[in-house]
Amino acid sequence: MVSFAIRRLIQTIPVVFLTTVLIFLLLHLVPGDPAEAIAGPDATPAEIQTVRHELGIDQPLPVQYVLWIGRLVHGDFGQSYVNQLPVRDLILQRIPATLELTIGAILLEMLIAIPTGILAATHRRGLADWIISSFNALVLAIPNFWFAILAILLFALALAWLPPGGYLALQTNLLLGLKFLILPAATLALSHAAVLSRYVKASLLDVLHQDYVRTARAKGLSERVIVQRHVLRNALVPVATILGLQFGRMLGGVVIIEAVFAWPGIGSLLLDSIESRDYTVVQGTLLLFLIVFMVVNFLTDLAYGFIDPRIRLADGGQRS
Questions:
Q1: Which of 38-47, 133-142, 304-313 is the most confident on average?
Q2: Of 56, 70, 114, 291, whose CA is between 20 and 30 Å from 49?
Q3: Rounded to an integer, what distance in angstroms lies between the CA atom of residue 72 and that of residue 64?
Q4: Which residues are 79's β-sheet partners?
Q5: Does 198 map to a domain?
Q6: In angstroms, what CA-CA distances link 6 with 12, 168, 312?
Q7: Whether residue 295 sits in one domain with residue 219
Q8: Distance (Å, rounded) from C-alpha 216 to C-alpha 128?
Q9: pLDDT digits (tens, 9 = 90+) for 61-86
Q10: What is the pLDDT of residue 317?
Protein backbone atom coordinates (compact mmCIF):
# COMPACT_ATOMS: atom_id res chain seq x y z
CA MET A 1 0.00 0.00 0.00
CA VAL A 2 2.88 2.39 0.76
CA SER A 3 4.49 1.91 -2.66
CA PHE A 4 1.08 2.33 -4.28
CA ALA A 5 0.65 5.68 -2.48
CA ILE A 6 4.17 6.84 -3.40
CA ARG A 7 3.61 6.11 -7.09
CA ARG A 8 0.32 7.98 -7.09
CA LEU A 9 1.99 10.93 -5.35
CA ILE A 10 4.83 11.05 -7.89
CA GLN A 11 2.32 10.98 -10.76
CA THR A 12 0.68 14.17 -9.45
CA ILE A 13 3.88 16.25 -9.61
CA PRO A 14 3.92 16.91 -13.40
CA VAL A 15 0.15 17.54 -13.32
CA VAL A 16 0.57 20.21 -10.63
CA PHE A 17 3.45 21.83 -12.53
CA LEU A 18 1.56 21.99 -15.84
CA THR A 19 -1.55 23.32 -14.13
CA THR A 20 0.37 26.13 -12.41
CA VAL A 21 1.79 27.12 -15.81
CA LEU A 22 -1.71 27.08 -17.32
CA ILE A 23 -3.19 29.18 -14.49
CA PHE A 24 -0.38 31.72 -14.76
CA LEU A 25 -0.54 32.07 -18.56
CA LEU A 26 -4.33 32.20 -18.83
CA LEU A 27 -4.61 34.99 -16.28
CA HIS A 28 -1.97 37.04 -18.08
CA LEU A 29 -3.73 36.56 -21.40
CA VAL A 30 -7.00 37.96 -20.03
CA PRO A 31 -7.71 41.47 -21.41
CA GLY A 32 -7.20 44.33 -18.99
CA ASP A 33 -4.35 45.76 -16.96
CA PRO A 34 -4.52 45.52 -13.14
CA ALA A 35 -2.20 48.53 -12.93
CA GLU A 36 -4.80 50.67 -14.71
CA ALA A 37 -7.56 49.42 -12.39
CA ILE A 38 -5.46 50.22 -9.31
CA ALA A 39 -4.14 53.58 -10.52
CA GLY A 40 -7.63 54.77 -11.46
CA PRO A 41 -9.21 56.14 -14.63
CA ASP A 42 -7.48 59.54 -14.33
CA ALA A 43 -3.93 58.16 -13.95
CA THR A 44 -1.25 59.20 -16.39
CA PRO A 45 0.80 56.64 -18.36
CA ALA A 46 3.77 57.38 -16.10
CA GLU A 47 1.71 56.66 -12.97
CA ILE A 48 0.40 53.43 -14.48
CA GLN A 49 3.94 52.37 -15.34
CA THR A 50 5.02 53.10 -11.77
CA VAL A 51 2.23 50.87 -10.45
CA ARG A 52 3.23 48.14 -12.91
CA HIS A 53 6.80 48.33 -11.64
CA GLU A 54 5.71 48.19 -8.00
CA LEU A 55 3.56 45.14 -8.74
CA GLY A 56 6.35 43.46 -10.68
CA ILE A 57 4.18 42.90 -13.75
CA ASP A 58 6.49 44.89 -16.02
CA GLN A 59 8.95 42.00 -16.09
CA PRO A 60 8.94 39.19 -18.71
CA LEU A 61 6.39 36.43 -18.09
CA PRO A 62 9.00 33.70 -17.43
CA VAL A 63 10.59 35.89 -14.75
CA GLN A 64 7.20 36.59 -13.17
CA TYR A 65 6.37 32.88 -13.17
CA VAL A 66 9.68 31.89 -11.54
CA LEU A 67 9.25 34.56 -8.87
CA TRP A 68 5.67 33.41 -8.23
CA ILE A 69 6.68 29.76 -7.88
CA GLY A 70 9.58 30.77 -5.63
CA ARG A 71 7.19 32.55 -3.30
CA LEU A 72 4.76 29.62 -3.36
CA VAL A 73 7.49 27.22 -2.26
CA HIS A 74 7.85 29.34 0.88
CA GLY A 75 4.09 29.46 1.44
CA ASP A 76 3.75 33.03 0.15
CA PHE A 77 0.76 33.45 -2.19
CA GLY A 78 1.65 37.08 -2.81
CA GLN A 79 -0.17 40.27 -1.92
CA SER A 80 -3.51 41.52 -3.13
CA TYR A 81 -3.19 44.33 -5.68
CA VAL A 82 -6.43 45.92 -4.50
CA ASN A 83 -6.43 45.92 -0.69
CA GLN A 84 -2.70 45.29 -0.09
CA LEU A 85 -3.36 42.31 2.20
CA PRO A 86 -1.57 38.94 1.95
CA VAL A 87 -3.49 36.57 -0.33
CA ARG A 88 -2.97 33.76 2.15
CA ASP A 89 -4.79 35.73 4.86
CA LEU A 90 -7.69 36.52 2.53
CA ILE A 91 -8.03 32.84 1.61
CA LEU A 92 -7.79 31.64 5.22
CA GLN A 93 -10.61 34.01 6.17
CA ARG A 94 -12.90 32.47 3.55
CA ILE A 95 -11.99 28.76 3.86
CA PRO A 96 -14.26 27.93 6.85
CA ALA A 97 -17.40 29.10 5.03
CA THR A 98 -16.58 27.14 1.86
CA LEU A 99 -15.68 24.02 3.88
CA GLU A 100 -19.01 24.16 5.70
CA LEU A 101 -20.88 24.50 2.42
CA THR A 102 -18.94 21.77 0.58
CA ILE A 103 -18.99 19.24 3.42
CA GLY A 104 -22.68 19.88 4.01
CA ALA A 105 -23.38 19.38 0.30
CA ILE A 106 -21.39 16.12 0.17
CA LEU A 107 -23.22 14.73 3.20
CA LEU A 108 -26.59 15.64 1.69
CA GLU A 109 -25.52 14.15 -1.64
CA MET A 110 -24.66 10.80 -0.05
CA LEU A 111 -27.82 10.81 2.07
CA ILE A 112 -29.88 11.30 -1.10
CA ALA A 113 -27.93 9.31 -3.69
CA ILE A 114 -26.97 6.09 -1.93
CA PRO A 115 -30.45 5.13 -0.62
CA THR A 116 -32.18 6.13 -3.87
CA GLY A 117 -29.59 4.29 -5.96
CA ILE A 118 -29.99 1.13 -3.87
CA LEU A 119 -33.78 1.40 -4.01
CA ALA A 120 -33.79 1.87 -7.78
CA ALA A 121 -31.44 -1.09 -8.30
CA THR A 122 -33.32 -3.48 -6.00
CA HIS A 123 -36.69 -2.48 -7.55
CA ARG A 124 -35.57 -2.32 -11.15
CA ARG A 125 -38.37 -1.47 -13.61
CA GLY A 126 -40.73 -0.97 -10.70
CA LEU A 127 -42.55 2.14 -9.55
CA ALA A 128 -39.71 3.26 -7.24
CA ASP A 129 -37.16 2.92 -10.06
CA TRP A 130 -39.36 4.94 -12.41
CA ILE A 131 -39.92 7.75 -9.90
CA ILE A 132 -36.23 7.98 -8.94
CA SER A 133 -35.02 7.85 -12.55
CA SER A 134 -37.52 10.51 -13.64
CA PHE A 135 -36.57 12.79 -10.77
CA ASN A 136 -32.84 12.38 -11.51
CA ALA A 137 -33.41 13.21 -15.18
CA LEU A 138 -35.39 16.32 -14.22
CA VAL A 139 -32.71 17.50 -11.79
CA LEU A 140 -29.94 17.02 -14.35
CA ALA A 141 -31.88 19.02 -16.93
CA ILE A 142 -32.12 22.15 -14.73
CA PRO A 143 -29.05 24.30 -13.89
CA ASN A 144 -27.98 24.73 -10.26
CA PHE A 145 -28.52 28.48 -10.22
CA TRP A 146 -32.13 28.01 -11.39
CA PHE A 147 -32.77 25.60 -8.53
CA ALA A 148 -31.20 28.16 -6.20
CA ILE A 149 -33.58 30.88 -7.37
CA LEU A 150 -36.61 28.59 -7.10
CA ALA A 151 -35.52 27.50 -3.61
CA ILE A 152 -35.20 31.11 -2.47
CA LEU A 153 -38.62 32.01 -3.90
CA LEU A 154 -40.32 29.01 -2.29
CA PHE A 155 -38.62 28.39 1.06
CA ALA A 156 -37.42 31.91 1.88
CA LEU A 157 -39.96 34.31 0.36
CA ALA A 158 -43.19 32.31 0.05
CA LEU A 159 -42.97 30.03 3.10
CA ALA A 160 -40.43 32.07 5.14
CA TRP A 161 -38.91 28.88 6.55
CA LEU A 162 -35.29 29.68 5.74
CA PRO A 163 -33.21 32.82 5.15
CA PRO A 164 -32.70 33.76 1.47
CA GLY A 165 -28.96 34.17 1.85
CA GLY A 166 -26.10 35.14 4.11
CA TYR A 167 -23.85 33.17 6.42
CA LEU A 168 -23.47 32.42 10.11
CA ALA A 169 -20.67 30.18 11.37
CA LEU A 170 -21.96 26.94 12.89
CA GLN A 171 -19.79 27.35 15.97
CA THR A 172 -21.45 30.69 16.66
CA ASN A 173 -25.02 29.38 16.64
CA LEU A 174 -25.54 25.81 15.43
CA LEU A 175 -29.29 25.92 14.77
CA LEU A 176 -29.31 29.33 13.10
CA GLY A 177 -26.15 28.47 11.16
CA LEU A 178 -27.84 25.33 9.83
CA LYS A 179 -30.77 27.40 8.62
CA PHE A 180 -28.40 29.52 6.56
CA LEU A 181 -26.60 26.38 5.30
CA ILE A 182 -29.57 24.24 4.21
CA LEU A 183 -30.57 26.04 1.00
CA PRO A 184 -27.11 26.53 -0.55
CA ALA A 185 -25.93 23.04 0.48
CA ALA A 186 -29.07 21.36 -0.84
CA THR A 187 -28.88 23.30 -4.12
CA LEU A 188 -25.22 22.38 -4.58
CA ALA A 189 -25.85 18.74 -3.68
CA LEU A 190 -28.94 18.08 -5.78
CA SER A 191 -27.47 17.69 -9.27
CA HIS A 192 -24.47 15.76 -7.94
CA ALA A 193 -26.81 13.47 -6.03
CA ALA A 194 -28.71 12.70 -9.24
CA VAL A 195 -25.48 11.67 -10.99
CA LEU A 196 -24.24 9.64 -8.03
CA SER A 197 -27.60 7.91 -7.65
CA ARG A 198 -27.35 6.70 -11.26
CA TYR A 199 -23.84 5.39 -10.66
CA VAL A 200 -24.90 3.61 -7.47
CA LYS A 201 -27.77 1.98 -9.34
CA ALA A 202 -25.58 0.92 -12.29
CA SER A 203 -22.85 -0.39 -10.01
CA LEU A 204 -25.30 -2.39 -7.89
CA LEU A 205 -27.00 -3.87 -10.97
CA ASP A 206 -23.63 -4.97 -12.29
CA VAL A 207 -22.72 -6.69 -9.02
CA LEU A 208 -26.19 -8.18 -8.51
CA HIS A 209 -25.71 -10.28 -11.66
CA GLN A 210 -22.43 -11.82 -10.52
CA ASP A 211 -22.20 -15.56 -9.94
CA TYR A 212 -21.52 -15.31 -6.21
CA VAL A 213 -24.75 -13.31 -5.76
CA ARG A 214 -26.74 -15.99 -7.55
CA THR A 215 -25.08 -18.55 -5.28
CA ALA A 216 -26.10 -16.54 -2.21
CA ARG A 217 -29.68 -16.44 -3.47
CA ALA A 218 -29.60 -20.19 -4.06
CA LYS A 219 -28.59 -20.66 -0.42
CA GLY A 220 -31.80 -18.92 0.62
CA LEU A 221 -30.35 -15.63 1.84
CA SER A 222 -32.73 -12.68 1.80
CA GLU A 223 -32.22 -9.84 -0.67
CA ARG A 224 -31.47 -7.41 2.16
CA VAL A 225 -28.70 -9.62 3.56
CA ILE A 226 -27.24 -10.17 0.08
CA VAL A 227 -27.12 -6.43 -0.62
CA GLN A 228 -25.70 -5.49 2.77
CA ARG A 229 -23.10 -8.27 3.14
CA HIS A 230 -22.08 -9.17 -0.39
CA VAL A 231 -23.00 -6.43 -2.86
CA LEU A 232 -22.37 -3.02 -1.30
CA ARG A 233 -18.62 -3.44 -0.69
CA ASN A 234 -17.88 -4.35 -4.31
CA ALA A 235 -20.31 -1.74 -5.64
CA LEU A 236 -18.62 1.02 -3.63
CA VAL A 237 -15.40 0.86 -5.68
CA PRO A 238 -16.60 2.93 -8.67
CA VAL A 239 -18.82 5.04 -6.41
CA ALA A 240 -15.76 6.15 -4.40
CA THR A 241 -14.12 7.36 -7.61
CA ILE A 242 -17.22 9.30 -8.66
CA LEU A 243 -17.40 10.97 -5.24
CA GLY A 244 -13.80 12.12 -5.59
CA LEU A 245 -14.40 13.53 -9.06
CA GLN A 246 -17.62 15.20 -7.96
CA PHE A 247 -15.80 16.96 -5.14
CA GLY A 248 -13.72 18.71 -7.78
CA ARG A 249 -16.88 19.64 -9.70
CA MET A 250 -18.39 20.98 -6.49
CA LEU A 251 -15.51 23.43 -6.17
CA GLY A 252 -16.59 24.88 -9.50
CA GLY A 253 -20.26 24.89 -8.47
CA VAL A 254 -19.41 26.65 -5.22
CA VAL A 255 -18.53 29.81 -7.16
CA ILE A 256 -22.06 30.19 -8.56
CA ILE A 257 -23.89 29.05 -5.43
CA GLU A 258 -21.92 31.39 -3.17
CA ALA A 259 -22.74 34.28 -5.49
CA VAL A 260 -26.48 33.49 -5.49
CA PHE A 261 -26.74 33.05 -1.71
CA ALA A 262 -24.23 35.79 -0.73
CA TRP A 263 -22.08 33.13 0.91
CA PRO A 264 -18.69 34.65 1.93
CA GLY A 265 -16.44 31.80 0.82
CA ILE A 266 -13.62 31.17 -1.62
CA GLY A 267 -15.99 31.25 -4.60
CA SER A 268 -17.23 34.76 -3.88
CA LEU A 269 -13.63 35.87 -3.24
CA LEU A 270 -12.68 34.52 -6.68
CA LEU A 271 -15.54 36.36 -8.40
CA ASP A 272 -14.73 39.64 -6.64
CA SER A 273 -11.07 39.29 -7.57
CA ILE A 274 -11.86 38.60 -11.22
CA GLU A 275 -14.09 41.66 -11.36
CA SER A 276 -11.37 43.89 -9.85
CA ARG A 277 -8.59 42.19 -11.90
CA ASP A 278 -6.77 41.29 -8.69
CA TYR A 279 -4.64 38.64 -10.40
CA THR A 280 -2.64 37.52 -7.36
CA VAL A 281 -5.84 36.65 -5.48
CA VAL A 282 -7.25 34.88 -8.54
CA GLN A 283 -4.04 32.87 -8.88
CA GLY A 284 -4.09 32.00 -5.19
CA THR A 285 -7.70 30.84 -5.15
CA LEU A 286 -7.33 28.82 -8.36
CA LEU A 287 -4.17 27.24 -6.98
CA LEU A 288 -6.04 26.36 -3.78
CA PHE A 289 -8.78 24.68 -5.84
CA LEU A 290 -6.06 22.76 -7.68
CA ILE A 291 -4.36 21.61 -4.48
CA VAL A 292 -7.64 20.51 -2.89
CA PHE A 293 -8.69 18.68 -6.06
CA MET A 294 -5.33 16.87 -6.29
CA VAL A 295 -5.43 15.91 -2.61
CA VAL A 296 -8.98 14.56 -2.94
CA ASN A 297 -8.02 12.58 -6.05
CA PHE A 298 -4.99 11.18 -4.23
CA LEU A 299 -7.11 10.14 -1.25
CA THR A 300 -9.67 8.67 -3.67
CA ASP A 301 -6.95 6.55 -5.27
CA LEU A 302 -5.90 5.32 -1.83
CA ALA A 303 -9.49 4.53 -0.90
CA TYR A 304 -9.91 2.78 -4.25
CA GLY A 305 -6.91 0.58 -3.54
CA PHE A 306 -8.04 -0.04 0.03
CA ILE A 307 -11.55 -1.11 -0.97
CA ASP A 308 -10.29 -3.41 -3.73
CA PRO A 309 -6.67 -4.65 -3.15
CA ARG A 310 -6.62 -6.07 -6.69
CA ILE A 311 -6.33 -2.52 -8.02
CA ARG A 312 -3.03 -1.72 -6.30
CA LEU A 313 -1.68 -5.18 -7.06
CA ALA A 314 -2.57 -4.84 -10.73
CA ASP A 315 -0.75 -1.49 -10.70
CA GLY A 316 2.42 -3.25 -9.69
CA GLY A 317 2.11 -2.66 -5.96
CA GLN A 318 2.84 -5.03 -3.14
CA ARG A 319 0.69 -5.84 -0.20
CA SER A 320 1.80 -3.94 2.87
A1: 133-142
A2: 70
A3: 12
A4: 86
A5: yes
A6: 10, 40, 12
A7: yes
A8: 25
A9: 888 888 888 888 888 888 887 778 88
A10: 47
253: domain CATH number is: 1.10.3720.10
The residue among 105, 97, 87 whose CA lies nearest residue 266 is 97
The per-residue pLDDT of the chain, averaged, comes to 82
Q: Quote the number of domains for the chain.
A: 2
Q: Select from 46, 73, 100 the last residue of a domain.
A: 73
Quick one: 64 and 119 in the same domain?
A: no
- 82: in domain: no
Write down the pLDDT at residue 301. Answer: 72
**Domain range holding 247?**
92-314
Q: Mind listing the pLDDT tens digit for each residue in 226-266?
A: 777 767 777 777 777 777 777 777 877 788 899 899 999 99
Percentage of the chain exceeding pLDDT 90: 22
Q: Is the pLDDT of residue 319 over 60?
A: no
> 277 and 184, same structural domain?
yes
Residue 67 included in any domain: yes
Listed residue (206, 208, 214, 198) closest to 228, CA to CA: 208
